[in-house]
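Hi there. Long-time user, first ticket. I'm pasting a complex I've been working with (about 511 residues overall). I'd like to know whether the download I got is complete or cut off, because the file seemed smaller than I expected. Thanks.
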Amino acid sequence: MKEYSQDLSSLMDNELGDKEVINTILDDTVLQKQFSRYQLIGDVLRDESNGLDLRMDITDNVMAAIANEKQDDYVAPLAAAPEKSNVVPFMKRFGQYAIAASVAGVVVVSSLMVNQGSSTDPSVAPVLNTVPFGGAAAPVSLQATPLQSENEIKERNERVEALLKDHQLQLQTQP
Amino acid sequence: MKHRLFLVACMSLLSLLASSQLIASPEVAQSEVKIETKSALPSALTYLNNMKQAYRELNYKLLYLNTAQNQIEPKQLIHGVVDGKSVAYFYFLNGAMRESLQFDGKISFYQQGSQAYSLATNRDQSVFANIANFNFENGNKSYEYIILGRDRIAGKKAIAIRMISKDQYRYSYIVWLDLESYLPLRLDIINQSNQILEQTMVVSLNISETINPWIQQLSVQATPDVLHLPLTAIAEVPKWHLDWLPPSFKIVKDDQHKLMMHDTDPVSYIMLNDGIVRVSVYISTKQTKLIEQKNVIRRGGTLIYTKQDENVEINVIGEIPLITAEKIAASIKPSK
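Hi, the file is complete. Here it is re-exported in full:
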Protein backbone atom coordinates (compact mmCIF):
# COMPACT_ATOMS: atom_id res chain seq x y z
CA MET A 1 0.00 0.00 0.00
CA LYS A 2 2.56 2.47 1.14
CA GLU A 3 4.90 1.75 -1.75
CA TYR A 4 2.14 2.56 -4.20
CA SER A 5 1.52 5.93 -2.55
CA GLN A 6 4.96 6.91 -3.74
CA ASP A 7 4.12 5.59 -7.20
CA LEU A 8 0.87 7.49 -7.19
CA SER A 9 2.57 10.78 -6.60
CA SER A 10 5.05 9.96 -9.31
CA LEU A 11 2.14 9.22 -11.60
CA MET A 12 0.54 12.50 -10.77
CA ASP A 13 3.75 14.28 -11.57
CA ASN A 14 3.96 12.40 -14.84
CA GLU A 15 7.16 10.80 -13.71
CA LEU A 16 6.07 7.21 -13.53
CA GLY A 17 7.43 5.05 -16.27
CA ASP A 18 6.67 1.60 -14.87
CA LYS A 19 3.82 0.17 -16.95
CA GLU A 20 3.28 -2.65 -14.52
CA VAL A 21 2.71 -0.29 -11.62
CA ILE A 22 0.24 1.73 -13.72
CA ASN A 23 -1.67 -1.43 -14.53
CA THR A 24 -1.75 -2.39 -10.86
CA ILE A 25 -3.15 1.01 -10.00
CA LEU A 26 -5.76 0.73 -12.73
CA ASP A 27 -6.90 -2.60 -11.32
CA ASP A 28 -7.07 -1.46 -7.73
CA THR A 29 -10.17 0.58 -6.84
CA VAL A 30 -8.69 1.60 -3.50
CA LEU A 31 -5.70 3.05 -5.22
CA GLN A 32 -7.87 4.74 -7.81
CA LYS A 33 -9.83 6.52 -5.12
CA GLN A 34 -6.66 7.49 -3.41
CA PHE A 35 -5.38 8.85 -6.71
CA SER A 36 -8.48 10.96 -7.22
CA ARG A 37 -8.17 12.28 -3.68
CA TYR A 38 -4.55 13.20 -4.31
CA GLN A 39 -5.55 14.95 -7.50
CA LEU A 40 -8.21 16.85 -5.66
CA ILE A 41 -5.81 17.85 -2.90
CA GLY A 42 -3.38 18.99 -5.58
CA ASP A 43 -6.09 21.03 -7.27
CA VAL A 44 -7.11 22.65 -4.04
CA LEU A 45 -3.51 23.44 -3.12
CA ARG A 46 -2.94 24.97 -6.53
CA ASP A 47 -6.25 26.77 -6.18
CA GLU A 48 -7.49 25.17 -9.36
CA SER A 49 -10.54 23.68 -7.81
CA ASN A 50 -12.82 26.50 -8.92
CA GLY A 51 -16.31 25.15 -8.60
CA LEU A 52 -14.97 21.63 -8.29
CA ASP A 53 -16.92 19.19 -6.24
CA LEU A 54 -15.12 19.18 -2.92
CA ARG A 55 -17.44 16.74 -1.30
CA MET A 56 -15.18 13.83 -2.25
CA ASP A 57 -17.14 10.83 -3.21
CA ILE A 58 -19.53 10.40 -0.35
CA THR A 59 -22.54 9.83 -2.60
CA ASP A 60 -22.26 6.08 -2.25
CA ASN A 61 -22.15 6.31 1.53
CA VAL A 62 -25.10 8.66 1.67
CA MET A 63 -27.16 6.53 -0.65
CA ALA A 64 -26.38 3.49 1.43
CA ALA A 65 -27.29 5.32 4.61
CA ILE A 66 -30.58 6.44 3.11
CA ALA A 67 -31.38 2.93 1.97
CA ASN A 68 -30.73 1.57 5.44
CA GLU A 69 -32.61 4.27 7.25
CA LYS A 70 -36.11 3.40 8.39
CA GLN A 71 -38.63 5.37 6.35
CA ASP A 72 -39.92 8.15 8.52
CA ASP A 73 -43.67 8.71 8.36
CA TYR A 74 -43.33 12.41 8.72
CA VAL A 75 -42.86 14.18 5.45
CA ALA A 76 -41.72 17.76 5.48
CA PRO A 77 -44.73 19.84 4.43
CA LEU A 78 -43.35 21.35 1.26
CA ALA A 79 -42.09 18.00 0.06
CA ALA A 80 -45.32 16.19 0.83
CA ALA A 81 -46.18 13.96 -2.09
CA PRO A 82 -49.75 13.08 -2.97
CA GLU A 83 -50.66 9.63 -1.82
CA LYS A 84 -53.14 7.29 -3.39
CA SER A 85 -56.23 9.19 -4.39
CA ASN A 86 -56.09 12.87 -5.03
CA VAL A 87 -59.45 13.41 -3.39
CA VAL A 88 -59.73 12.95 0.33
CA PRO A 89 -62.99 12.39 2.13
CA PHE A 90 -63.53 15.73 3.64
CA MET A 91 -65.39 15.14 6.85
CA LYS A 92 -62.64 12.96 8.19
CA ARG A 93 -60.36 15.90 8.42
CA PHE A 94 -62.39 19.04 8.60
CA GLY A 95 -60.30 20.10 11.58
CA GLN A 96 -57.50 20.56 9.09
CA TYR A 97 -59.39 23.34 7.45
CA ALA A 98 -58.44 25.67 10.19
CA ILE A 99 -55.15 26.29 8.40
CA ALA A 100 -56.76 28.16 5.53
CA ALA A 101 -58.29 30.47 8.08
CA SER A 102 -55.12 30.93 10.05
CA VAL A 103 -53.05 31.51 6.94
CA ALA A 104 -55.61 34.09 5.97
CA GLY A 105 -55.03 35.69 9.33
CA VAL A 106 -58.26 34.91 11.10
CA VAL A 107 -57.63 35.36 14.77
CA VAL A 108 -59.22 32.89 17.10
CA VAL A 109 -62.12 34.55 18.81
CA SER A 110 -62.42 32.27 21.82
CA SER A 111 -61.30 33.62 25.13
CA LEU A 112 -62.03 37.14 24.14
CA MET A 113 -65.65 37.72 24.71
CA VAL A 114 -65.43 36.12 28.10
CA ASN A 115 -63.78 39.34 29.10
CA GLN A 116 -66.49 41.42 27.65
CA GLY A 117 -69.11 40.76 30.27
CA SER A 118 -66.84 41.61 33.13
CA SER A 119 -65.25 44.98 33.57
CA THR A 120 -62.45 45.65 31.18
CA ASP A 121 -59.11 44.63 32.52
CA PRO A 122 -56.34 46.04 30.34
CA SER A 123 -53.98 43.22 31.25
CA VAL A 124 -56.26 40.66 29.63
CA ALA A 125 -57.12 42.72 26.59
CA PRO A 126 -58.71 40.51 23.97
CA VAL A 127 -56.60 39.50 21.03
CA LEU A 128 -59.35 40.37 18.65
CA ASN A 129 -61.12 43.54 19.53
CA THR A 130 -64.80 43.36 19.24
CA VAL A 131 -66.04 46.85 19.01
CA PRO A 132 -69.74 47.39 19.23
CA PHE A 133 -71.02 49.71 16.56
CA GLY A 134 -70.56 53.25 17.69
CA GLY A 135 -67.24 52.48 19.27
CA ALA A 136 -68.20 52.58 22.92
CA ALA A 137 -69.86 49.98 25.04
CA ALA A 138 -73.58 50.46 25.15
CA PRO A 139 -74.98 51.50 28.49
CA VAL A 140 -76.30 48.44 30.21
CA SER A 141 -79.30 48.58 32.46
CA LEU A 142 -79.06 45.86 35.06
CA GLN A 143 -82.75 45.10 35.04
CA ALA A 144 -83.45 45.24 31.36
CA THR A 145 -80.51 43.39 29.85
CA PRO A 146 -79.56 40.10 31.41
CA LEU A 147 -75.86 39.41 31.15
CA GLN A 148 -74.83 36.38 29.21
CA SER A 149 -73.65 33.45 31.22
CA GLU A 150 -70.12 32.31 30.64
CA ASN A 151 -71.32 29.22 28.82
CA GLU A 152 -73.48 31.22 26.49
CA ILE A 153 -70.58 33.51 25.71
CA LYS A 154 -68.38 30.54 25.03
CA GLU A 155 -70.96 29.03 22.74
CA ARG A 156 -71.34 32.30 20.91
CA ASN A 157 -67.56 32.62 20.51
CA GLU A 158 -67.31 29.19 19.03
CA ARG A 159 -70.10 29.96 16.66
CA VAL A 160 -68.48 33.20 15.46
CA GLU A 161 -65.18 31.45 15.08
CA ALA A 162 -66.72 28.66 13.04
CA LEU A 163 -68.42 31.21 10.81
CA LEU A 164 -65.23 33.22 10.31
CA LYS A 165 -63.25 30.14 9.42
CA ASP A 166 -65.89 28.95 7.03
CA HIS A 167 -65.98 32.41 5.47
CA GLN A 168 -62.22 32.26 4.88
CA LEU A 169 -62.49 28.82 3.40
CA GLN A 170 -65.26 29.89 1.06
CA LEU A 171 -63.16 32.88 -0.04
CA GLN A 172 -60.26 30.60 -0.88
CA THR A 173 -62.42 28.44 -3.10
CA GLN A 174 -64.44 31.18 -4.70
CA PRO A 175 -65.07 30.27 -8.33
CA MET B 1 -50.90 78.37 30.04
CA LYS B 2 -51.17 80.56 26.98
CA HIS B 3 -48.01 79.04 25.66
CA ARG B 4 -49.40 75.59 26.07
CA LEU B 5 -52.58 76.43 24.26
CA PHE B 6 -50.59 77.89 21.45
CA LEU B 7 -48.52 74.74 21.25
CA VAL B 8 -51.60 72.55 21.15
CA ALA B 9 -53.03 74.68 18.38
CA CYS B 10 -49.80 74.40 16.44
CA MET B 11 -49.69 70.66 16.88
CA SER B 12 -53.23 70.14 15.76
CA LEU B 13 -52.63 72.37 12.77
CA LEU B 14 -49.59 70.30 11.90
CA SER B 15 -51.44 67.03 12.23
CA LEU B 16 -54.25 68.44 10.14
CA LEU B 17 -51.77 69.29 7.42
CA ALA B 18 -50.23 65.86 7.65
CA SER B 19 -53.51 64.02 7.49
CA SER B 20 -54.84 66.12 4.65
CA GLN B 21 -51.88 64.95 2.65
CA LEU B 22 -52.93 61.35 3.18
CA ILE B 23 -56.64 61.62 3.01
CA ALA B 24 -57.46 64.57 0.89
CA SER B 25 -61.09 65.42 0.69
CA PRO B 26 -62.72 64.80 -2.70
CA GLU B 27 -62.72 68.53 -3.47
CA VAL B 28 -58.99 68.83 -2.96
CA ALA B 29 -58.43 65.66 -4.93
CA GLN B 30 -60.53 66.94 -7.82
CA SER B 31 -58.36 70.00 -8.24
CA GLU B 32 -55.25 67.85 -8.16
CA VAL B 33 -56.64 65.79 -10.98
CA LYS B 34 -56.94 68.88 -13.08
CA ILE B 35 -53.34 69.74 -12.44
CA GLU B 36 -52.30 66.23 -13.39
CA THR B 37 -54.23 66.28 -16.65
CA LYS B 38 -52.83 69.66 -17.59
CA SER B 39 -49.33 68.26 -17.61
CA ALA B 40 -50.64 65.33 -19.67
CA LEU B 41 -49.77 62.66 -17.15
CA PRO B 42 -51.39 59.23 -17.30
CA SER B 43 -54.88 59.04 -15.87
CA ALA B 44 -55.71 57.24 -12.65
CA LEU B 45 -57.23 54.45 -14.71
CA THR B 46 -54.01 54.02 -16.69
CA TYR B 47 -52.03 53.75 -13.47
CA LEU B 48 -54.46 51.21 -12.06
CA ASN B 49 -54.34 49.10 -15.21
CA ASN B 50 -50.55 49.25 -15.16
CA MET B 51 -50.66 48.00 -11.59
CA LYS B 52 -52.89 45.13 -12.63
CA GLN B 53 -50.41 44.05 -15.27
CA ALA B 54 -47.35 44.50 -13.03
CA TYR B 55 -48.87 42.55 -10.16
CA ARG B 56 -49.51 39.61 -12.46
CA GLU B 57 -46.43 39.63 -14.66
CA LEU B 58 -43.41 40.72 -12.64
CA ASN B 59 -41.04 38.70 -10.48
CA TYR B 60 -41.01 40.35 -7.10
CA LYS B 61 -40.69 39.94 -3.38
CA LEU B 62 -42.69 42.06 -0.98
CA LEU B 63 -42.25 42.40 2.74
CA TYR B 64 -45.31 44.06 4.15
CA LEU B 65 -47.23 44.89 7.29
CA ASN B 66 -50.89 44.35 7.83
CA THR B 67 -52.46 46.66 10.35
CA ALA B 68 -55.96 46.30 11.68
CA GLN B 69 -57.18 47.55 15.02
CA ASN B 70 -53.74 48.12 16.54
CA GLN B 71 -52.52 44.72 15.51
CA ILE B 72 -49.57 44.58 13.17
CA GLU B 73 -48.66 41.43 11.32
CA PRO B 74 -45.52 41.25 9.17
CA LYS B 75 -45.79 39.02 6.13
CA GLN B 76 -43.96 38.17 2.96
CA LEU B 77 -45.05 37.51 -0.58
CA ILE B 78 -42.83 36.18 -3.33
CA HIS B 79 -44.31 36.22 -6.78
CA GLY B 80 -42.91 34.81 -9.96
CA VAL B 81 -43.95 33.66 -13.38
CA VAL B 82 -43.24 30.16 -14.68
CA ASP B 83 -44.26 29.46 -18.29
CA GLY B 84 -46.75 32.30 -18.15
CA LYS B 85 -48.30 31.04 -14.93
CA SER B 86 -48.10 32.92 -11.64
CA VAL B 87 -46.52 31.36 -8.58
CA ALA B 88 -47.25 33.08 -5.29
CA TYR B 89 -45.57 32.03 -2.09
CA PHE B 90 -46.78 33.67 1.08
CA TYR B 91 -45.79 33.41 4.68
CA PHE B 92 -46.07 35.00 8.09
CA LEU B 93 -42.79 36.39 9.33
CA ASN B 94 -43.70 36.23 13.03
CA GLY B 95 -45.07 33.47 15.21
CA ALA B 96 -45.90 29.99 14.04
CA MET B 97 -44.91 29.09 10.50
CA ARG B 98 -47.95 29.61 8.35
CA GLU B 99 -47.45 29.59 4.62
CA SER B 100 -49.28 29.08 1.40
CA LEU B 101 -48.27 28.41 -2.16
CA GLN B 102 -50.54 29.16 -5.06
CA PHE B 103 -49.74 27.79 -8.48
CA ASP B 104 -51.55 26.23 -11.40
CA GLY B 105 -55.11 26.23 -10.10
CA LYS B 106 -54.24 25.15 -6.59
CA ILE B 107 -53.45 26.80 -3.30
CA SER B 108 -51.61 24.74 -0.69
CA PHE B 109 -51.56 25.55 2.99
CA TYR B 110 -48.81 24.64 5.39
CA GLN B 111 -48.72 25.15 9.09
CA GLN B 112 -46.44 23.91 11.78
CA GLY B 113 -47.93 20.88 13.47
CA SER B 114 -50.75 20.35 10.98
CA GLN B 115 -50.99 18.24 7.91
CA ALA B 116 -50.78 20.28 4.75
CA TYR B 117 -53.53 20.30 2.15
CA SER B 118 -54.50 22.05 -1.05
CA LEU B 119 -57.66 23.65 -2.32
CA ALA B 120 -58.61 24.09 -5.95
CA THR B 121 -58.82 27.76 -6.87
CA ASN B 122 -58.26 29.90 -9.91
CA ARG B 123 -58.40 33.24 -8.16
CA ASP B 124 -55.25 34.92 -6.99
CA GLN B 125 -55.50 34.92 -3.20
CA SER B 126 -52.46 37.05 -2.48
CA VAL B 127 -52.49 40.26 -0.51
CA PHE B 128 -53.24 42.91 -3.13
CA ALA B 129 -55.03 40.58 -5.53
CA ASN B 130 -58.54 41.82 -4.80
CA ILE B 131 -57.58 45.35 -5.80
CA ALA B 132 -55.01 44.43 -8.42
CA ASN B 133 -57.35 42.12 -10.30
CA PHE B 134 -60.32 44.42 -10.26
CA ASN B 135 -61.91 45.27 -13.57
CA PHE B 136 -61.36 49.01 -13.27
CA GLU B 137 -63.23 49.87 -16.48
CA ASN B 138 -66.45 48.20 -15.31
CA GLY B 139 -65.71 49.24 -11.76
CA ASN B 140 -66.29 52.91 -12.51
CA LYS B 141 -69.97 52.26 -11.87
CA SER B 142 -69.09 51.72 -8.22
CA TYR B 143 -65.91 53.71 -7.76
CA GLU B 144 -64.42 56.95 -8.89
CA TYR B 145 -60.65 56.98 -9.42
CA ILE B 146 -58.75 60.06 -8.40
CA ILE B 147 -55.03 60.75 -8.28
CA LEU B 148 -54.23 62.15 -4.86
CA GLY B 149 -50.61 62.97 -5.47
CA ARG B 150 -47.11 61.73 -4.92
CA ASP B 151 -45.69 60.11 -1.87
CA ARG B 152 -42.83 57.91 -0.83
CA ILE B 153 -43.39 54.34 0.35
CA ALA B 154 -40.74 51.72 1.10
CA GLY B 155 -38.11 54.08 -0.26
CA LYS B 156 -39.85 54.26 -3.64
CA LYS B 157 -41.50 57.14 -5.37
CA ALA B 158 -45.16 56.37 -5.27
CA ILE B 159 -48.40 57.77 -6.52
CA ALA B 160 -51.55 57.63 -4.43
CA ILE B 161 -54.85 56.90 -6.11
CA ARG B 162 -58.12 57.00 -4.34
CA MET B 163 -61.01 54.75 -5.27
CA ILE B 164 -64.04 56.48 -3.89
CA SER B 165 -67.20 54.48 -3.52
CA LYS B 166 -70.10 56.06 -5.36
CA ASP B 167 -72.59 54.78 -2.80
CA GLN B 168 -72.73 54.13 0.92
CA TYR B 169 -72.76 50.36 0.57
CA ARG B 170 -69.04 49.79 0.18
CA TYR B 171 -65.80 51.12 1.57
CA SER B 172 -63.37 53.31 -0.33
CA TYR B 173 -59.71 52.58 -0.90
CA ILE B 174 -56.48 54.45 -1.35
CA VAL B 175 -53.81 52.58 -3.20
CA TRP B 176 -50.19 53.67 -3.55
CA LEU B 177 -48.24 52.46 -6.59
CA ASP B 178 -44.53 52.36 -7.24
CA LEU B 179 -43.98 54.86 -10.05
CA GLU B 180 -41.27 52.73 -11.56
CA SER B 181 -42.79 49.25 -11.57
CA TYR B 182 -46.45 50.15 -10.86
CA LEU B 183 -46.59 47.50 -8.17
CA PRO B 184 -48.93 48.30 -5.27
CA LEU B 185 -47.05 49.53 -2.20
CA ARG B 186 -49.80 50.40 0.19
CA LEU B 187 -53.52 49.92 0.48
CA ASP B 188 -55.85 51.61 2.95
CA ILE B 189 -59.46 50.63 3.43
CA ILE B 190 -61.37 53.70 4.53
CA ASN B 191 -64.91 54.29 5.62
CA GLN B 192 -67.19 57.18 4.81
CA SER B 193 -65.80 59.32 7.60
CA ASN B 194 -62.28 58.83 6.21
CA GLN B 195 -61.11 56.58 9.00
CA ILE B 196 -58.54 54.00 8.03
CA LEU B 197 -60.02 50.62 8.92
CA GLU B 198 -57.24 48.46 7.68
CA GLN B 199 -53.88 49.07 6.12
CA THR B 200 -51.41 47.01 4.15
CA MET B 201 -48.03 48.62 3.73
CA VAL B 202 -45.02 47.32 1.86
CA VAL B 203 -41.74 48.00 3.66
CA SER B 204 -39.44 46.31 1.19
CA LEU B 205 -39.87 45.68 -2.51
CA ASN B 206 -37.49 43.65 -4.62
CA ILE B 207 -38.04 43.20 -8.32
CA SER B 208 -35.93 40.77 -10.28
CA GLU B 209 -35.57 39.99 -13.96
CA THR B 210 -35.73 36.28 -13.34
CA ILE B 211 -37.90 34.22 -11.08
CA ASN B 212 -36.81 33.68 -7.49
CA PRO B 213 -35.07 30.28 -7.47
CA TRP B 214 -36.87 29.24 -4.29
CA ILE B 215 -40.35 29.54 -5.73
CA GLN B 216 -39.17 28.14 -9.04
CA GLN B 217 -38.22 25.07 -7.06
CA LEU B 218 -41.51 25.07 -5.15
CA SER B 219 -43.47 25.19 -8.39
CA VAL B 220 -42.14 21.84 -9.51
CA GLN B 221 -42.62 20.14 -6.18
CA ALA B 222 -45.53 17.85 -5.50
CA THR B 223 -48.32 19.60 -3.64
CA PRO B 224 -50.41 18.08 -0.86
CA ASP B 225 -53.76 16.46 -1.57
CA VAL B 226 -56.54 18.60 -2.94
CA LEU B 227 -59.55 18.63 -0.63
CA HIS B 228 -63.03 19.37 -1.84
CA LEU B 229 -65.58 21.16 0.25
CA PRO B 230 -68.61 18.93 0.60
CA LEU B 231 -72.13 20.16 0.09
CA THR B 232 -75.14 19.05 2.04
CA ALA B 233 -78.13 17.56 0.29
CA ILE B 234 -80.47 20.37 -0.62
CA ALA B 235 -83.45 18.68 1.00
CA GLU B 236 -81.85 18.97 4.43
CA VAL B 237 -81.79 22.74 4.53
CA PRO B 238 -84.47 25.16 3.39
CA LYS B 239 -83.50 27.48 0.57
CA TRP B 240 -83.37 31.24 0.83
CA HIS B 241 -82.95 34.11 -1.52
CA LEU B 242 -82.06 37.78 -1.32
CA ASP B 243 -84.59 40.43 -2.29
CA TRP B 244 -81.94 43.11 -2.40
CA LEU B 245 -78.32 43.20 -3.48
CA PRO B 246 -76.00 46.14 -2.96
CA PRO B 247 -75.33 47.86 -6.33
CA SER B 248 -72.97 45.90 -8.63
CA PHE B 249 -72.79 42.92 -6.27
CA LYS B 250 -73.49 39.54 -7.80
CA ILE B 251 -74.22 36.17 -6.23
CA VAL B 252 -71.23 33.95 -6.90
CA LYS B 253 -72.04 31.02 -4.60
CA ASP B 254 -75.34 29.67 -3.40
CA ASP B 255 -75.28 26.35 -1.61
CA GLN B 256 -76.02 24.37 1.50
CA HIS B 257 -73.16 23.02 3.55
CA LYS B 258 -72.04 22.28 7.04
CA LEU B 259 -69.78 24.65 8.86
CA MET B 260 -66.31 23.28 8.58
CA MET B 261 -65.66 23.22 12.27
CA HIS B 262 -69.12 22.10 13.34
CA ASP B 263 -70.11 19.21 11.15
CA THR B 264 -73.52 18.90 12.75
CA ASP B 265 -74.58 22.35 11.81
CA PRO B 266 -75.98 22.77 8.29
CA VAL B 267 -76.28 26.29 6.89
CA SER B 268 -77.59 27.90 3.75
CA TYR B 269 -74.81 29.86 2.22
CA ILE B 270 -74.75 32.74 -0.27
CA MET B 271 -71.63 34.60 -1.37
CA LEU B 272 -71.78 38.05 -2.93
CA ASN B 273 -68.98 39.71 -4.84
CA ASP B 274 -68.53 43.14 -6.42
CA GLY B 275 -65.12 42.41 -7.91
CA ILE B 276 -63.21 43.47 -4.80
CA VAL B 277 -65.22 42.58 -1.76
CA ARG B 278 -66.63 39.17 -0.95
CA VAL B 279 -69.54 38.88 1.45
CA SER B 280 -70.70 35.63 3.05
CA VAL B 281 -74.30 35.23 4.14
CA TYR B 282 -75.15 32.34 6.46
CA ILE B 283 -78.70 31.37 7.25
CA SER B 284 -79.34 28.68 9.83
CA THR B 285 -81.96 27.52 12.26
CA LYS B 286 -79.43 27.14 15.02
CA GLN B 287 -79.31 30.12 17.30
CA THR B 288 -76.84 31.07 19.93
CA LYS B 289 -77.91 33.35 22.69
CA LEU B 290 -76.87 36.86 21.98
CA ILE B 291 -77.28 40.22 23.61
CA GLU B 292 -78.65 42.73 21.19
CA GLN B 293 -75.85 45.24 21.52
CA LYS B 294 -73.32 42.60 20.66
CA ASN B 295 -74.60 41.58 17.28
CA VAL B 296 -71.83 43.44 15.48
CA ILE B 297 -68.20 42.42 15.60
CA ARG B 298 -65.52 44.25 13.69
CA ARG B 299 -61.94 43.54 12.95
CA GLY B 300 -60.29 46.01 10.65
CA GLY B 301 -62.54 46.26 7.63
CA THR B 302 -64.23 42.93 8.32
CA LEU B 303 -67.65 42.96 9.86
CA ILE B 304 -69.66 40.14 11.36
CA TYR B 305 -73.29 41.03 11.69
CA THR B 306 -75.83 38.74 13.31
CA LYS B 307 -79.57 39.03 13.06
CA GLN B 308 -81.96 36.70 14.82
CA ASP B 309 -85.62 36.48 14.21
CA GLU B 310 -88.08 33.76 15.07
CA ASN B 311 -86.23 30.54 14.40
CA VAL B 312 -83.65 31.84 12.03
CA GLU B 313 -80.21 33.25 12.57
CA ILE B 314 -78.59 35.24 9.79
CA ASN B 315 -74.90 36.06 9.80
CA VAL B 316 -73.33 38.42 7.29
CA ILE B 317 -69.52 38.53 7.08
CA GLY B 318 -67.43 40.73 4.83
CA GLU B 319 -65.58 43.98 4.30
CA ILE B 320 -68.70 46.08 4.11
CA PRO B 321 -70.27 48.89 6.14
CA LEU B 322 -72.87 47.94 8.72
CA ILE B 323 -75.71 49.44 6.70
CA THR B 324 -75.01 47.04 3.83
CA ALA B 325 -75.00 44.03 6.15
CA GLU B 326 -78.25 45.16 7.75
CA LYS B 327 -79.95 45.64 4.41
CA ILE B 328 -78.75 42.28 3.14
CA ALA B 329 -79.96 40.50 6.26
CA ALA B 330 -83.32 42.25 6.08
CA SER B 331 -83.81 41.19 2.48
CA ILE B 332 -83.49 37.47 3.08
CA LYS B 333 -86.68 35.60 2.26
CA PRO B 334 -87.44 31.88 2.10
CA SER B 335 -87.54 30.47 -1.42
CA LYS B 336 -90.59 28.56 -2.43
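A couple of notes from our side: The longest strand of chain B covers residues 196-208. Residues 2-22 of chain B form the longest helix (21 residues).
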